[in-house]
UniProtKB/TrEMBL annotation:
Coiled coil segments of this chain: none
GO function term, MF aspect, one: myo-inositol:proton symporter activity
Family: Belongs to the major facilitator superfamily. Sugar transporter (TC 2.A.1.1) family.
Membrane topology reported for the UniProt record: Multi-pass membrane protein
Subcellular location: Membrane
Upper taxonomic lineage: Eukaryota, Viridiplantae, Streptophyta, Embryophyta, Tracheophyta
Keyword Nucleus: no
Primary residence: membrane
TM annotation in the entry: 6-26, 33-52, 58-80, 92-114, 120-142, 207-229, 244-267, 274-293, 384-410, 422-443, 455-473
One GO CC term on file: plasma membrane
Name of the molecule in the record: Major facilitator superfamily (MFS) profile domain-containing protein
Gene3D superfamilies: MFS general substrate transporter like domains
Domain Major facilitator superfamily (MFS) profile: 1-477
Length: 509
């Protein structure tokens, strides 16, 4: 594992632990306390990383950051959901997703701003402590979740907060539903356990939907796009690191734009329909990427023995052996050479014409550059590269408004109050474990089977996700949180979309 992979993996491992522990802290100490603890961990981690004097200290700081991110990933949407009026609940949780994706875009810009500053990386890591500190201060002035307070017996405090959230005509109804929900839960004094979660019908069905959405959110490949977008751009045939980073910035911007769309559509279209529209677009985008990368592999520029020999003794040894055996190589075969040393492709001035296969090192890169040629080590020159970029852009635009936000919204509102923190923690842990598996296997998969088949695998998983959403995910749009439990009790298979509620507030079937 490379140092960069170790740094990424350490943070994700911390997030897995933070998400798992965060569910218990959410239920035991409240949503507000959980968010403040998460911010504190993030603040400490950022300071440690900025002051690091070696890799070990840097990794130690990343663990703190990961713990904070894992805890906040479910605590924030849960707090927002429980402190929001029903009619705008989805939009406000989606706003949380927009602020996350917008923050990612902003971080790219901040990193660019600090590229020429003394101690560049320390500023990049240390500046992350500022928003964490600001949120700690602001959270101290905000109330606790009224639903959590009500369940903990602080009814008067909860009612005061709910009066500020709901219109007068809705307030009595919300209080009555909350009272009935809490009374039902308090009858069950049994300690929460995994066996109890499975035995409780509404919780079990909620977990099917919530954990399934969390799993598919990651396994359709989103974080391979976000973590490795510069690599994917190079796989599409764009050799320049500068170009790859610029296009990655655009990718991050599209992700933030998609989150804005979610704010508008999630309470109008509904969670389930938005997820299905999103996944359908993801399937089409991945199909386009699969075909494009396959065409790039098939029409890869050939390797010319004559071109390769022009670079003295730096020709790829494996290519020399293949030439002696009358084997013809193309660029893809060159950069995927399995023996040591690994090799790279120095393109012809007309990039799709035969080029040279050379040992992958700085000398080869510099020699290729002196000839005003492009140097490829991850992807190959192609006439189809721009189509891959279109596919990448479409993937982000379709994913972000739907599968980027719907899993978080559904998981913040689908579980009974007593189990909400624990179940949310399970779903959040699923997200981070899936994230780790996908992000750590992506580059290995592209090396073994190529990017085209890798994207096809993600596409097949997205098709399975569509079927899963149709069958198991209920529509929670406009349904008061306290009524979701009753909805799940009555129905397991969710193939039929939930219709609009009638004037009495009961669900039509």
């Amino acid at each position: 594992m490379s140092s960069s992979e170790a740094i990424v993996s350490t943070a994700i491992a911390g997030a897995i632990i933070g998400a798992a522990v965060g569910g218990w802290i959410n239920d035991r100490f409240g949503r507000k306390v959980s968010i403040i603890v998460a911010d504190t961990l993030f603040f400490i981690g950022s300071i440690i990383m900025a002051a690091a004097n070696g890799p070990a200290v840097l990794l130690f700081g990343r663990v703190f950051v990961g713990l904070g991110v894992g805890m906040a990933s479910m605590a924030s949407p849960l707090y927002i959901s429980e402190a929001s009026p029903t009619r705008v609940r989805g939009a406000l949780v989606s706003l949380n997703s927009f602020l996350i994706t917008g923050g990612q875009f902003l971080s790219y810009l901040i990193n660019l701003a600090f590229t020429k500053a003394p101690g560049t990386w320390r500023w990049m890591l240390g500046v992350a402590s500022v928003p964490a500190l600001i949120q700690i201060v602001l959270m101290l002035s905000l109330p606790e979740s009224p639903r959590w307070l009500y369940r903990k017996g602080k009814e008067d405090e909860a009612k005061l907060i709910l009066k500020k959230i709901y219109e007068v005509e809705d307030y009595d109804n919300e209080i009555q539903q909350l009272k009935e929900s809490v009374e039902m839960e308090l009858k069950n004094t049994e300690k929460i356990s995994m066996m109890q979660l499975i035995k409780t019908t509404s919780v079990r069905r909620g977990l099917y939907a919530g954990v399934g959405l969390a799993f598919f959110q990651q396994f359709v490949g989103i974080n391979t796009v976000m973590y490795y977008s510069p690599t994917i751009v190079q796989l599409a045939g764009f050799a320049s690191n500068r170009t790859a980073l610029l296009l990655s910035l655009i990718t991050s911007g599209l992700n933030a734009f998609g989150s804005i769309l979610s704010i508008y559509f999630i309470d109008k279209t509904g969670r389930k329909k938005l997820a299905l529209i999103s996944l359908t677009g993801v399937v089409l985008s991945l199909a386009l990427l699969t075909v494009t990368f396959r065409e790039t592999e098939i029409h890869s520029p050939m390797v010319s023995p004559f071109e390769s020999k022009q670079f003295s003794n730096n020709t790829c040894p494996e290519f020399n052996t293949a030439t002696l055996n009358n084997q013809k190589w193309n660029c893809v075969r060159c950069i995927q050479s399995s023996n040591k040393p690994t090799c790279g492709f120095c393109a012809d001035h007309n990039k799709i014409q035969p080029g040279a296969c050379l040992i992958k090192n700085d000398f080869s890169k510099n020699q290729c550059g002196k000839e005003k040629r492009a140097w490829y080590t991850q992807g190959c020159p192609s006439n189809f590269g721009w189509v891959a970029l279109v596919g990448l852009g479409l993937y982000i635009i379709f994913f972000s408004p739907g599968m980027g936000t719907v899993p978080w919204v559904v998981n913040s509102e689908i579980y009974p109050l007593r189990y909400r923190g624990v179940c949310g923690g399970i779903a959040s842990t699923t997200v981070w474990v899936s994230n780790l598996v996908v992000s750590q296997s992506f580059l290995s998969l592209t090396e073994v089977i190529g990017p085209s088949w890798t994207f096809m695998i993600f596409g097949v998983i997205a098709i399975v996700a569509i079927l899963f959403v149709i069958v198991f995910v209920p529509e929670t749009k406009g349904v008061p949180i306290e009524e979701v439990e009753d909805m799940l009790e009555k129905r397991f298979v969710q193939i039929k979309f939930w219709k609009k509620r009638d004037s009495l507030g009961s669900q039509k079937h």
